């Protein structure tokens, strides 16, 4: 549908409506910068943005990638596609009280497509898509910046003109090489921000298209306004920030299309000036378009809220300590300090960290804290820019500054803690969109300096130097995101007070088998945050494995005291108590763990081991059966059932359980070995032999496999093969219990047979 506006008093209104005023000052006039044809400008931006992050293409899955991708069942083919619309970003049900309520089904869908095309969890494909997305967004920024810096003007043929090619190229390059974007590009979960930004920009460009002049001379196209709303909704389905584009479209409409002077409008509203009727709001359809945007935004938010279910997510104090402060003053002052740190990351992105929580930024609790200076500096700059944006007599200046502030502030609002509590202190990924505003303000500042400077080339060289430094910083930071070890260690110098950084370094070392070094970092994490239950749990686990049981028990007991519903700590406490032969306490700890986590197969497995030690065989079998029901691929539980039934003489039942297990886990060599032992005792030698050989093929260096196969041949009367496998077993493990004795018995028997034969 197209709306026609009739106004006999203003015959040239439609032409003015479609075009920026010809007499406006040109931002490029004083800028000493490269002037490239549009095609070459896009090629340069694409190449440089690719260069910055190309070395992250073969990185691992790091940090949040594990939960969002590897452990996310929504990526697997067996999960119905429809479930994506009812699950959060991490694969949990949105209706669950433990859900983070991050609703990004379209981002998860792209992960699923990546997984299916790659045939598994191979990170290269995931990284390549992220790099290409950033390159595409950076190229689109050329068109966006040309409108924001040069204005919206069309040729007679309806083609949009680029009135600021040099300025838009500089701004796009600043955006493409900003090091704060590394988390979004090199971290795979950052795809949510990239996809959101892509549709965010397409929504803005679609809205601009609504004002393209057509042959009928119509003022604007409702179709393109609605397309813009739909693209904004898609952006929000990639990440929550996407909804803010509707507000920015309204700001753009008011400032660029309608050229409203905000200060003058406020004055007229305050004094109820009748000239408002002639302000052009109704004539140009601004109120109608804003109504469309508001209705679209309200509808999108309502649907989002209905899908989200219960209410806002529940975060802990360690996630965002300022939001839990009782004093409104302390909350306000720390929120503003966080804003100043975000601004500093845009201005000087040298100190970057994967996580800024858990004591990384201590709370400001009084006005005597020297960090108050950062707040004062932030608001001094903001107030100065706002005053210039409102009060300047230069309409061009007012427009650019207001748009720059709008793109800086509005996309940041969902992360500001103003409307709801967020689950982080600072997150570099949420600055991806606000950096658009920073690039606008930087470029405008550069144009003002160029206008005043006598040696413009020196200024241009300085800006080029900033770009080159940013490129090098991007390359360095991208390499740090390639592995968890580099990423976590890079944070130690930036946030030495962050307990989570030390915890993650410790966990990475523990996963590599370096327990001594891991203990050091876990202890530091607990020292920095004495209530860090996950660090206590992991440290307790390592101490348990090193047989330092009493300290392990102390740590795990403290962890469950701090967080009584911490199921994993209860289970580990039970294991320690079992090792200390305090069986009743261990049993109670296991059942407490199961009480807090109903579906806990590992806990049922350990409970079964406890019952087996107490000769409560039926209870042990029931516990292991529960473990396999909850987790059919739980090999250890299946194996223990087979072995217990075998040891108690229930060979038929052991055989049945073994066959059931192998149907579910057909390639598990330990199950083949256990079932082969049972079949051998049941004198099913041929089938037992086949399973032993299959197990040996899968794991040829297991001495017990060769030793038990030798016993089978020994019983079967195939003495030469028995001798061969006894010798292989003893070669692999010279002190294997029973094997040497059996081998000696076989040798004596063979000698006796030789004597008889001779």
Automatic annotation (TrEMBL):
The chain crosses the membrane at residues 39-57, 106-125, 188-208, 220-237, 243-266, 286-305, 372-391, 403-424, 430-449, 458-476. InterPro entries: O-mannosyl-transferase_TMTC, TMTC_DUF1736, TPR-like_helical_dom_sf, TPR_rpt. It comes from Vireo altiloquus (Black-whiskered vireo). Its main location: endoplasmic reticulum. The keyword Signal does not apply. Pathway: Protein modification; protein glycosylation. It is found in: Endoplasmic reticulum; Membrane. One of its GO terms (cellular component) is endoplasmic reticulum. This is dolichyl-phosphate-mannose--protein mannosyltransferase. Keywords: Endoplasmic reticulum, Membrane, Repeat, TPR repeat, Transferase, Transmembrane, Transmembrane helix. Residues 311-383 form the DUF1736 domain. It is a multi-pass membrane protein. It is an enzyme of class 2 (transferase). One of its GO terms (biological process) is endoplasmic reticulum unfolded protein response.
């Amino acid at each position: 549908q197209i709306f026609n506006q009739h106004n006999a008093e203003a015959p040239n209104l439609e032409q003015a409506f479609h075009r920026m005023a010809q007499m406006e000052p040109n931002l490029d006039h004083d800028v000493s910068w490269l002037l490239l044809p549009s095609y070459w400008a896009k090629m340069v931006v694409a190449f440089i943005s690719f260069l910055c992050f190309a070395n992250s293409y073969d990185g691992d899955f790091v940090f949040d990638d594990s939960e969002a991708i590897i452990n996310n069942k929504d990526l697997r083919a067996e999960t119905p596609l429809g479930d994506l619309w009812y699950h959060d970003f991490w694969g949990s049900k949105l209706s669950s009280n433990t859900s983070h309520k991050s609703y990004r089904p379209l981002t998860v869908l792209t992960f699923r497509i990546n997984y299916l095309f790659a045939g598994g969890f191979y990170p290269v494909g995931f990284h390549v898509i992220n790099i290409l997305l950033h390159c595409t967004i950076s190229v689109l920024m050329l068109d966006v910046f040309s409108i924001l810096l040069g204005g919206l003007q069309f040729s007679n043929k309806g083609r949009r003109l680029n009135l600021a090619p040099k300025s838009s190229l500089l701004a796009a390059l600043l955006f493409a090489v900003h090091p704060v974007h590394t988390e979004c590009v090199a971290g795979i979960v950052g795809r949510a921000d990239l996809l959101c930004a892509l549709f965010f920009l397409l929504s803005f460009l679609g809205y601009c298209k609504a004002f393209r002049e057509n042959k009928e001379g119509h003022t604007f196209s409702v179709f393109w306004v609605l397309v813009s709303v739909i693209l904004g909704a898609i952006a929000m389905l990639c990440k929550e920030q996407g909804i803010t584009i509707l507000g920015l479209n309204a700001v753009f409409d008011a400032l660029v299309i309608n050229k409203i002077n905000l200060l003058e409008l406020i004055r007229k509203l305050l004094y109820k000036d009748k000239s408002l009727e002639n302000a052009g709001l109704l004539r140009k359809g601004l109120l109608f378009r804003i109504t469309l945007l508001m209705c679209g935004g309200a509808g999108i938010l309502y649907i989002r809220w209905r899908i989200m279910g219960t209410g806002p997510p529940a975060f802990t104090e360690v996630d965002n300590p300022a939001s839990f402060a009782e004093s409104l003053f302390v909350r306000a002052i720390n929120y503003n300090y966080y804003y100043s740190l975000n601004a500093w990351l845009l201005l000087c992105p040298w100190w970057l960290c994967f996580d800024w929580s858990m004591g990384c930024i201590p709370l400001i609790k009084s006005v005597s804290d020297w960090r108050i200076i950062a707040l004062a500096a932030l608001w001094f700059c903001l107030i100065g820019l706002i005053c210039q944006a409102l009060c300047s007599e230069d309409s061009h200046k007012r427009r650019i500054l207001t748009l720059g502030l709008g793109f800086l502030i509005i996309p940041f609002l969902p992360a500001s803690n103003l409307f709801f509590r967020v689950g982080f202190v600072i997150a570099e990924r949420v600055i991806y969109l606000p950096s658009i505003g920073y690039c606008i303000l930087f470029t405008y500042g550069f144009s003002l300096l160029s206008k005043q400077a006598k040696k413009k080339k020196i200024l241009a060289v300085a800006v080029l130097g900033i770009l080159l430094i940013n490129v090098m910083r991007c390359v360095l930071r991208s390499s740090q995101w390639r592995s968890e070890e580099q990423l976590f260690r890079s944070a130690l110098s930036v946030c030495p007070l962050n307990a989570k950084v030390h915890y993650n370094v410790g966990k990475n070392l523990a996963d590599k088998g370096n327990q001594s070094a891991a203990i050091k970092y876990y202890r530091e994490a607990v020292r920095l945050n004495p209530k860090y239950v996950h660090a206590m749990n992991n440290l307790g686990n390592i101490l348990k494995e090193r047989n330092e049981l009493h300290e392990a028990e102390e740590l795990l007991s403290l962890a469950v005291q701090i967080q009584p519903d911490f199921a994993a700590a209860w289970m580990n406490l039970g294991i320690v108590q079992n090792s200390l032969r305090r069986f009743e306490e261990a049993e109670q700890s296991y059942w407490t763990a199961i009480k807090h986590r109903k579906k806990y197969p590992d806990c049922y497995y350990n409970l079964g081991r406890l019952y087996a030690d107490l000769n409560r065989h039926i209870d042990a079998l029931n516990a292991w059966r529960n473990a396999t029901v909850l987790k059919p691929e739980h090999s250890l539980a299946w194996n223990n059932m087979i072995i217990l039934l075998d040891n108690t003489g229930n060979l038929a039942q052991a055989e049945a359980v073994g066959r059931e297990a192998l149907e579910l886990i057909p390639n598990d060599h330990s199950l083949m070995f256990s079932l082969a032992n049972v079949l051998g005792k049941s004198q099913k030698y041929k089938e037992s032999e086949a399973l032993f050989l299959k197990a040996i093929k899968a794991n040829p260096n297991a001495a017990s496999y060769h030793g038990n196969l030798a016993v089978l041949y020994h019983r079967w009367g195939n003495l030469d093969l028995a001798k061969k496998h006894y010798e292989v077993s003893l070669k692999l493990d010279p002190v294997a219990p029973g094997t040497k004795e059996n081998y000696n018995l076989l040798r004596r028997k063979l000698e006796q047979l030789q004597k008889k034969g001779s």
